Hints:
The protein has 102 residues and is α+β, with helices and mostly antiparallel strands. The chain is built from four helices and three strands; from the N terminus they run βαβαβαα. The chain has one domain (3-91).
Amino acid sequence: MTYRKVFIIAQVHSTYCAEMMRYDTCCPASEEDAFLMINAMRPGNKAEWVIFKRFVRQDTIKEPSVGRWKSFNMCCLPKAYNCYEAAEAARDELLKSRSGRG
């Protein structure tokens, strides 16, 4: 069976989020993303938008199921990206729009 790697963006806010990542074969896409994830999981810290590597079978849909992720109390963008740089640019745009600097 052939797998491919895609990148998704999700908001992490607690240790419960780790279960969803495990079920969807995801891991932080970079050292910076791992730091953001760990920091967001600490009690009292703010949620963070993290880029995850997701491993999917070649013949399956690559986009995350927003409703399924929401059932784990996680927000995620409905798009998957084929490279980390594209996901990073999308996250930067998201953060800029949410801060009112866009």
